[in-house]
Amino acid sequence: MFFALDAEQLTFASTVRDFLAHRFDLDKVRAVVDDTAGDGAPAALWKAAGEQGWLAVLVPEEHDGLGLGMVDAQVIARELGAGVAPGPWAPTVLAGEAVRLGGSAEQQARLLPRLATGQLAATVALRGEGGRYAAAEAPFEARDGRLTGRALPVEYPGIAHTIVAAAGDGLYLVDPAAPGVSVTALSAYDGTTRVGAVELDGAEAEPLPGIDAAAALLDRAAVLTASDLAGVAREALRRTVAYGREREQFGRPVGSFQAIKHALADLHVGITMAEHAVLFAAHAVDAGLPGAALAVSVAKSKAGETAVAATGAMIQYHGGIGYTWEHEAHLFYKRAKRQAAVFGDVTMHRERIAALTIG
Amino acid sequence: MDLTYTEDEEQFRDELRSWLRANIPDEWTRPGFWRSLPSDESFRMRRDWERDKAMAGFAGIEWPVEFGGRGGTPGMKAIYDEEMVAARAPQTVNALGLTFLAPTVMAIGTAEQKRDIIGPMLRNEVIWCQGFSEPGAGSDLAALSTRGVRDGDEFVVNGQKVWTTNASHGDKIFAMVRTEPGDSKHRGISMLLIDMHQPGVEARPLRQLSGDSEFGEVFFTDARVKATDCLGSLGEGWGTAMLLLSFERGASGIGQYTEFRRQYDEIVRVARRLGRAQEPVARQQLARCLAELECLRYHAMHVLTQVEQGRDLGSEASLTKLQWSETFQDLWEVFDDIAGPEAVLAQPRPGLDLIPMQAQAFWSRSVTIWGGSSQVQRNIVAERLLGLPR
Ligand SMILES: Cc1cc2nc3c(=O)[nH]c(=O)nc-3n(C[C@H](O)[C@H](O)[C@H](O)COP(=O)(O)OP(=O)(O)OC[C@H]3O[C@@H](n4cnc5c(N)ncnc54)[C@H](O)[C@@H]3O)c2cc1C
């Protein structure tokens, strides 16, 4: 029995963590958040993601990738979450997964090497406005190889060179510059991530021939998002504990009050469970375990619920300062809120758990 | 990542499974069977069965062979816990001895204690009670006031223990007794191993809220115990107790998961029978519990991994306890919600016998109290794992 990260995975995690701590700390994140006119994809971070293999993690070695699995990918996602890091890492990795899972050999050879190095950014458009994240509820309709429909929120559509679009009969590649494609930026309160809408009006699209790739892609998206959430939650708790030790009221550190201690203890338990759940779900997806769908929904619902609670607690136990724009609590809180809602919210994943265990 | 057991471990599983299959009568596995017997009889049957199991080599799985154990791996212990639940085997009658006393004796007992305590315990010749709590000392164990006064090579013990599990069936009790006027609350306590079959010891059953009497009170009136029947050094009982309590049921999380998961399925059956399995709110509540149960399973794999790597889990046991006990309690809260008005009917109805489930629902109220209450566990998690100030 070995249910843990191995030495290489731990090293990978600390490489990402150290890079963010030294080269892309919260001041840098804040600059991206405040620069609302910018593309939200800082070049320094993107360069590191390409050079250090963060983007290559899931790309097979034959296409210049590292050929690793979701367990390794969730390591990176967690650190990016903990650093509330901006940029299109997740959507690009997911678009790569769509091509790896559903693409032809030619499509893979054409796209994967460039996605692995960061030469191309890409994104996925898997949900329609007001709809659910489910393969059966794809946002686009396909007719004669042309797609029509509207997807949102889509991460970083403005800088994506390729959009993976979900239609009722499978996944397609869409060139954002093609006629009939319109990409609109949407302002959103989680400034660490840029989102937009993708509208297709009879746009030409290139099918990914693999079947069942859409469902597999949604599960992978849920796992990486859950991992980001676990990272956000862990860091929110760490910062709240640090503040509780230092801030004094009534002549003692506020963290010595049991009302705060017990709430933080429960969060520690919850976050630890979320971390286990993400790790297990990533492994279940990698190994194709029969319980993988259940594991994914456990991980996403647990991580979503816990991150929203942990970041809410971060605000509460910082008191007034926690409610200011100047304080970092809102960066974590808003990222948690957004990530908890995408690729299936808590309620949707619980309903899937119910369907799998109750019928 | 490797979630499999070794070949030896799987071989052990096969052997245990066939022994269990051959040695558990079908009737015993019927829900409610054990509750249908008078409690003394059920205790005796379980005691004898467990002895036979030990003689067959299926006890003390991960304990060294020199102490009468099987010398197995932590993985085998996890498999043992899982298979025992899966086979609906009778529950142990010597839990406090097996879980707490035996590993402490192995760690710090004298040669005689190792010889005289562990073997007889494995064969259920001696049922052990844990004599820690007193009317005035529960969470604050060091406030205990049971006293032992030296008389030659013996101690004369006076005082009272309470909520003592197995009080009416116990043969011996490992009791925390104040034997020296220590200079602080935590000093001067000794862990004495007292024979309960003597005139100075009286056990009275207490009726629990479930109606059962698994625990009771133990009164010491000039009870006698040899000064050598002390585990650890005289006056150093606090350290002994801390060591003893550190032997949490780490690897058995897999067994707990197996048991709770089966209970989840039983609750789902009740929901179906009552036509509530498609209600969105009930489904959300059940799914939340299921997710927590799955987390408990992952956590058990994490704990097993750490144990196999030889790491000391330390205060992480408090986190484990919070996860399993709070999840178990939540699950039975959901049962009550789903069963609705039927949940309180203490009488079987056609196709619907909720009594064994009600017993679990009651029991779930106790698990956040014994073994360190949830509040105490949260203090430990906050102070020792998170580093918040006292
Ligand atoms: C089914 C069952 C079996 C048991 N078996 C045994 C046994 O075999 N042997 C044995 O010795 N004991 C046994 N006990 C007793 C058990 O260990 C105690 O009940 C437990 O330690 C709590 O002590 P208490 O009951 O005195 O509650 P108290 O300590 O008085 O606690 C009352 C309340 O105050 C809270 N509280 C206490 N201290 C703090 C704190 N510092 N911060 C915040 N909240 C606090 C508690 O969580 C609880 O909610 C058993 C109990 C039960 C229910």
Question: Biggest interface between protein chains, with counts per chain?
Answer: A-B, 47 and 48 residues
Rg for CA atoms of chain B:
22 Å
Total number of helices of chain B: 11
Write down how many β-strands of chain A occur, each being a DSSP E stretch of 2 or more residues: 10
| Major sheet strand order of chain B | 1-4-5-8
Q: In percent terms, what proportion of residues of chain A is strand?
A: 5-15%
CATH fold group of the largest domain in chain A:
Butyryl-CoA Dehydrogenase, subunit A, domain 3
What ranges of chain A have pLDDT less than 50 throughout 5 or more consecutive residues?
A: none
What is the mean pLDDT of chain A? 97
Entry summary:
Chain A is an alpha+beta fold and 359 residues long. Helices cover 53% and strands 14% of the residues of chain A.
Describe the protein's architecture and organization.
The complex is a heterodimer of chains A (359) and B (390). Chain A has 359 residues and is an alpha+beta fold. Chain A folds into 3 domains: 111 residues, Acyl-CoA dehydrogenase/oxidase, N-terminal domain (Butyryl-Coa Dehydrogenase, subunit A, domain 1, Orthogonal Bundle), CATH 1.10.540; 87 residues, Butyryl-CoA Dehydrogenase, subunit A, domain 2 (Beta Barrel); 145 residues, Butyryl-CoA Dehydrogenase, subunit A, domain 3, CATH 1.20.140.10. Chain A contains 11 helices and 10 strands. In chain A, the strands form 3 sheets. Chain A has a 4-stranded mixed beta sheet, covered by helices on one side. A 4-stranded antiparallel beta sheet of chain A has the order 2-3-7-6, with no helix packed on it. In chain A, strands 9-10 form a two-stranded antiparallel sheet. In chain A, strand 2 and strand 3 form a beta hairpin. The longest helix of chain A is centred in the middle third of the chain and has 34 residues. Chain B folds into 3 domains: 87 residues, Butyryl-Coa Dehydrogenase, subunit A, domain 1, CATH 1.10.540; 108 residues, Beta Barrel (Butyryl-CoA Dehydrogenase, subunit A, domain 2); 136 residues, Butyryl-CoA Dehydrogenase, subunit A, domain 3 (Up-down Bundle), CATH 1.20.140.10. The radius of gyration of chain B is 22 Å and the shape is globular. Chain B is of the alpha+beta class and 390 residues long. Chains A and B meet through helix 7, strand 10, helix 8, helix 9 and helix 11 of A and helix 7, helix 8, helix 9 and helix 11 of B.
